[in-house]
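Listing S7. Sequence submitted for prediction.
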Amino acid sequence: MLAIACSPAISNDGEDVFLLALCTRAGDVHIWKVTERPTEDALDAKFIGEANHGDWISAADWTLIDQDLFLATGAADGSTKLWKINAKQLSTVTAVKDITESDMYRVQALAWDPKQVRAPYHNACN
């Protein structure tokens, strides 16, 4: 794994969950739904989908806007992709935007601008 990103906590089917994106050198993004089980002092993880960025993913970050989770991924080839997952269904990973700013520079980090995000943000991994 090269990049790992934890989504804001959301309510899904009456449970508080978050999504975990595990990004690989091969360009794959594996999305897992993680449910905290406080009474058992454990976590449940369920694989819900995957996508392919196309190149070595070096950065990832989540945000929640309305009822959708958005994941941004950045790669070694300088490209950035935006993925959307409906927070209620948690079943489909949809590519929304493909941005290539530079073929010369690897994306080393990325983050959402909290001033531009309209929904409350709480990161369950912090």
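Caption to Listing S7: primary sequence and predicted structure tokens for the chain studied. Residues 19 and 33 are 5 Å apart (CA to CA). Confidence is low (pLDDT under 50) at residues 118-126.
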